[in-house]
Amino acid sequence: MSDNLASKITDSELEVMKLLWCAKDALPVTEIREKLQGSKGWEPATIKTLVSRLVSKGVVRQEKRNVYYYSPVITEKEYSSWATKDLITRIYNGKASDLIASLVSSNGLTKDDIAELREMFKVEE
Amino acid sequence: MSDNLASKITDSELEVMKLLWCAKDALPVTEIREKLQGSKGWEPATIKTLVSRLVSKGVVRQEKRNVYYYSPVITEKEYSSWATKDLITRIYNGKASDLIASLVSSNGLTKDDIAELREMFKVEE
DNA sequence: TTGCTTAAGCTACAATTGTAAACTGCATTT
DNA sequence: AAATGCAGTTTACAATTGTAGCTTAAGCAA
Q1: Could you tell me the pTM of the whole model?
Q2: Residue ranges of the alpha helices (H) in B57-110?
Q3: From the CB of residue B45, how many other CB atoms can be counted at a distance below 10 Å?
Q4: Within a 10 A sphere around the Cβ of B99, how many other Cβ atoms?
Q5: CB of A93 within 8 A of CB of A56?
Q6: How far does Cα A20 stand from its chain's mean position?
Q7: CA–CA separation, B30 and B99 (whole Å)
Q8: What is the crossing angle of helices B29-40 and B11-22, to 10°?
Q9: How big, in percent rounded to 5, are the helix, strand and coil portions of chain B?
Q10: Are B91 and A99 in contact (CB < 8 Å)?
Q11: Suppose B72 and one of A109, B20, B31, B87 were both cysteines; which one would form an S-S bond, judging by CB atoms 3.0 to 4.6 Å apart?
């Protein structure tokens, strides 16, 4: 995923992406709207704008059936790992372990998190 | 640090913050400019705008001496841990360990990082 | 003191973002 | 066929951001 694609997903747009990522298949605007109108209180027009912008940005694909169906071009994993690396670059001088150290020292980790991490980084043998 | 303060530090502004965080004492614009003009290629006016915006946002304090001196109101640690939590909230559903798992699975960690993390999460005693 | 240099403040302006209305054309209903 | 409704497109508009010029005031040099 190139820098300027992901970097351009804005907060509002991200809500649309999340929905598309959850969906098994491509969705028509109707459905996107249905889901988001309630949760976000957005007008139909707003949602259409967001979807269109995501298409322009190349992170959502549209396929014409009866009506357009929309699906993500990038996966959620791709996006989140990109966003994470971006954070590390911008504010941790590129050092991933500094991010984690910051999480630890700012009590950003729950007991469960820590247990999982212990497991994750246990020295194998 | 309240949400709307930190959230408002933009990329360009962050460069100014980084400089102020490095400085032991408050700096006059002259010095901020000196440091950033070279590295960022910004015009003096641009730098003044950024500094002023940071002051409006309440994250930089100005004190009048001969000339205004600027210093950060929030620490780098406060900011980075805020930004990290924000990322976790926005894209990892609030689960910090998911962030770390994503780093692991996307090869975002160097050997050194991993060594440090093993150390960090080693079961003590 | 008189002008020059520069700090600080004010103004500018395009691009992006959040939010949405207006319009347009096709399909479905009556 | 005429009208209605909604998908898709275009336009809108304020706030924020990136980038910077213009103006004013004050200190320093001549």
Answers
A1: 0.88
A2: 76-91, 96-105
A3: 9
A4: 25
A5: no
A6: 10
A7: 40
A8: 120
A9: 60, 10, 30
A10: no
A11: B20
Rounded distance between C-alpha atoms, residue A37 and residue A27, angstroms:
15
Strand C nucleotides below 7 A of a protein CB?
6-12, 16-22, 28
* Percent helix / strand / coil, chain A, rounded to 5: 60, 10, 30
The upper half-sphere exposure of residue A43, i.e. CA atoms within 13 Å in the direction of its Cβ, equals: 3
CB pairs under 8 A between A and B: 112
**C-alpha distances in angstroms, B124 versus A104, A121, B119?**
15, 13, 10
pLDDT in tens, chain B (125 residues): 445 555 589 999 999 999 999 998 999 999 999 889 888 889 999 999 999 999 999 999 999 888 999 999 999 999 999 999 999 999 999 999 899 999 999 998 999 999 988 988 887 64
Beta strands in chain B (DSSP E): 27-28, 60-64, 68-72
3-state class (DSSP) for residue A71:
strand
